[in-house]
Each structure stands twice: as structure tokens, then as C-alpha cells.
Specification:
The protein is an alpha/beta fold and about 425 residues long. The protein has 2 domains: about 250 residues, 3-Layer(aba) Sandwich (Aspartate Aminotransferase, domain 2), CATH 3.40.640; about 100 residues, Aspartate Aminotransferase, domain 1. Helices cover about 40% and strands about 15% of the residues. It contains 12 helices and 13 strands. It has a 7-stranded mixed sheet with strand order 1-7-6-5-4-2-3, with helices on both faces. Helix 2 packs antiparallel against helix 10. The protein is globular and about 65 Å long. The model has no long low-confidence stretch (mean pLDDT about 95).
Length: about 425
């Protein structure tokens, strides 16, 4: 049986001390030893976010008539993001709690549009096996049949296989820019053309790339077409709390037009409480992450994001190059941005490497990776947080490879989850 809440309250200092103690075994992201989950934009970003958070600790975006400042914050952040992603003047959207909610909103909007405009009662969607699990979650929640197709040898979505699954009941075709597992960008123009051919939505999952690719392009990196400049792209998700360097949890869902956006919104007027409308899945929405995102974006500006992106890409390039120098491991795919999947190299001259055993050895040295597969690999989202520690990481990697070569672990779990 769970222990009961204490009858009497406790002094604030004691409560905070206990909270601090609970963090003892958490990953040390402040030391740059985590590749993902937390993205550190530096002291100025911290201050902007924390001061905004204090201002909006209690505000509720459920009703922006009561808090018009949150309505303005949402509109401005959405507008800035739409501009970054080359949205037309008609582009519209909302803030959400994170990439999963943005994706779910995109899935729901596609279902509703298919029902309203094409009379589809048995909706279907097409995704690659590299698409985020949130699309499967959306299909489950909203009663959509999902068709999953393989990826090509370069880890991008197999568009020919997608074409075989698209039909008159298709309401959504999905591309990723970049996809999470190996960090490559799908052929968005071809995917969007498939969707447009049957009048379906094309959602681009830019949760990992929405605040990277626009700046990478300005820095001279080769970025394939992926945003609203691509005809047929109807919606894009982009997470500010990832490489936008805002605190958790805030993301943007963008639609090409307000007409497309309205399919996302739930409206209900048959309630004793009066008219109810919700733009996304939440009712009550904390104003804190919205205000923090606004403050961080204003603090950084384009120049700040360009510098953070330049540093991040340099970190990732150095990490990829360093991995290539270690016998026994390799990088999967030709990713050019911040995402790296490291796997065993089948052409290694030495004894084989079990990358999950390697991940355990790295964790013992303080370096945390997510496990993923198939194929078995260690996933890294490199960011500004890892500045100054890449050489230390590569030294730890080489030592860990030597330690585990020819050994294995029975633990094959790939948890990316919250389970008890």
C-alpha cells in the first residue's frame, strides 16, 4: 500500500531539500553527458526562461479571454515559427505541450478533414517504420487504420512502398524532417505529392528539425526541401522545447491555412457550463511553458539561434567523425544534423561489439544514451549542451569499446517510456 500524505505540512526548506536529494541518480545533463531529453541554451536562456516562468507560474491558457496575454503569446510564437518554416500568410496554428500532442493534433485534423470533405468513414494513414511512435498512438486513439512501410537502405521512407498503400480512404501521409532514429530527412516532395493525389493531408514531423533545419540552411548546410515551400504539405509539428531551447513542454502545430486548422479544434455547445472549445487535446494549459518559450525566442533572436545551431552542428560533426575512427562501431545513415545512431560495425577487424553492453559501459562512465532498434543502436541527440565534452566522450567511447569487445549483455530492452 502506498504511504499516506503526512497529516501536517512541512517547512518549505525541508521539502525542497528532499526534492534536491531525489535528483541524486538523475542523468547529469548539466555536465553535457546526456545526448537528448534536455537542451541547454546557456545562462542567458536560463535566465529568460526562469524569469518568464515566475511571471506565469499560475496562469491558465484554458480561457484566453481571462488571460489575453497568453493569447498574444501563442499568436506571436506561432507566427514566428510559421515564418521560420516559410509558411504562407494564411498559416495558422497553436501551441501544444510537446511533439506527441502536436502529432496527435495533426492526425485528428486529417481524420476530421477526410470525413468532412471526402465522406471517409474508415480512414487510413500511411507512415514509414521510422515515423515517431506518436503516429501509431494517434491511429489507435482516433480509430484510423495505419499502414507501415519499410525504409530504404539510406533509412529514408520508401516512397514507392507508400504509394502502394495510398488509396481513396487515405486521410494522412507522413514524412519526417528528420526522422528520429537515424536523423535523415525523408523525401518530402514525393510524400506530399502522394497525399495531394488523393486529397489527403501531408504532415511533416519537424519536431526534431523545426528549430534546426531553418538555421542549418542559413549556415550553408545542404537541406532538402521539407517545409511549407513544398506543395502539398498541409501541417508541420516543431518542438520549441528541443532545439528551440525552451523548457519542457512546448511545441507548435502549424497548418497551411485556418481552414485546415479548424479541423483540429474541438467545439461543444450542448453543456450546462456553456460554450466550450479546445484547440488541442488539453483543456487547462499552463501558461508557464508558453511564456518561457516566448521569452527564450525573443532573447535569442535569429542570430542567437544561428550561433547555437552552428555550435551544435560542429559538436555533431566531431562526434560522427570520432565514432568513425573507433574500430567496432559505426554511424547508421548519412545524417547531417544533430541526430546520431551508433551501431556495431559488421566489418570490424576485432571481436564484435554488443552496443547495448557498450551503452552500459558508457553509462558507468557517466554518459547516457537511449537504446533503440532494430537494429540495435545507441541514439544521441547532440546539442549545445555537449559543447566542450566531445573529446572526453570519444575517449570514453574508445575505452568502453575495448572493455566490452567480445562480451554481451542479456538486457535487450529499448525503453523510451514511462512505465511502472
Amino acid at each position: 500500500m502506498a504511504s499516506p500524505l503526512g497529516q501536517q505540512g512541512r517547512p518549505v526548506d525541508d521539502v525542497i531539500a528532499d526534492l534536491s536529494a531525489k535528483r541524486e541518480h538523475d542523468v547529469r545533463w548539466e555536465d553535457g553527458k546526456a545526448f537528448g531529453m534536455i537542451y541547454d541554451g546557456g545562462p542567458g536562456v536560463h535566465e529568460a526562461a526562469e524569469r518568464a516562468a515566475r511571471l506565469y507560474l499560475h496562469e491558465n491558457a484554458l480561457n484566453t479571454k481571462a488571460f489575453p496575454s497568453l493569447g498574444a503569446i501563442q499568436s506571436e510564437v506561432v507566427g514566428w515559427t510559421a515564418n521560420l518554416l516559410n509558411g504562407p500568410d494564411t498559416a495558422s496554428g497553436f501551441l501544444t505541450s510537446g511533439g506527441t500532442e502536436s502529432i496527435l493534433c495533426g492526425v485528428k485534423a486529417a481524420r476530421e478533414r477526410g470525413r468532412a470533405e471526402r465522406g471517409i468513414e474508415e480512414p487510413e494513414m500511411v507512415v514509414a517504420e521510422s515515423a515517431h511512435a506518436a503516429f501509431h498512438k494517434g491511429a489507435h486513439l482516433f480509430g484510423i487504420q495505419l499502414h507501415k512501410v519499410p525504409v530504404r537502405d539510406d533509412w529514408t521512407a520508401d516512397v514507392d512502398a507508400m504509394a502502394d498503400e495510398v488509396n481513396d480512404n487515405t486521410v494522412l501521409v507522413v514524412g519526417s524532417a528528420p526522422q528520429y532514429p537515424q536523423g535523415v530527412v525523408d523525401d518530402i516532395p514525393a510524400i506530399a505529392a502522394l497525399a495531394a493525389g488523393v486529397g489527403a493531408n501531408c504532415h511533416v514531423d519537424g519536431c526534431m528539425g523545426g528549430f534546426v533545419l531553418p538555421f542549418a540552411e542559413r549556415l550553408g548546410r545542404d537541406v532538402p526541401p521539407w517545409d511549407f515551400r513544398v506543395d502539398g504539405v498541409t501541417s508541420i509539428s516543431a518542438d520549441i522545447h528541443k532545439l528551440g531551447y525552451a523548457p519542457k513542454g512546448v511545441s507548435v502545430i502549424l497548418h497551411r491555412t485556418k481552414e485546415l486548422r479548424r479541423y483540429q479544434t474541438f467545439v461543444f455547445d450542448d453543456w450546462l457550463g456553456g460554450f466550450y472549445a479546445s484547440p488541442n487535446l488539453q483543456g487547462t494549459r499552463s501558461g508557464l511553458p508558453m511564456a518561457a518559450a516566448w521569452a527564450v525566442m525573443q532573447h535569442l533572436g535569429i542570430d542567437g539561434y544561428l550561433e547555437l545551431t552552428r555550435v551544435m552542428l560542429d559538436n555533431a560533426d566531431r562526434m560522427r567523425a570520432g565514432i568513425a575512427e573507433v574500430d567496432g562501431v559505426r554511424v547508421l545513415g548519412d545524417g547531417a544534423y544533430q541526430l546520431i545512431a551508433m551501431a556495431a560495425d559488421p566489418e570490424s577487424a576485432g571481436d564484435p561489439i554488443d552496443v547495448f553492453a557498450l551503452g552500459d559501459a558508457l553509462e558507468r562512465r557517466g554518459w547516457f544514451h537511449d537504446r533503440q532498434g532494430p537494429p540495435d543502436s545507441l541514439h544521441s541527440t547532440v546539442s549545445n549542451s555537449n559543447t566542450g565534452v566531445i573529446d572526453d566522450y570519444l575517449e570514453a567511447l574508445a575505452a568502453s569499446v575495448d572493455e566490452v569487445r567480445g562480451t554481451s549483455t542479456d538486457d535487450r530492452s529499448t525503453n523510451y517510456a514511462t512505465l511502472e
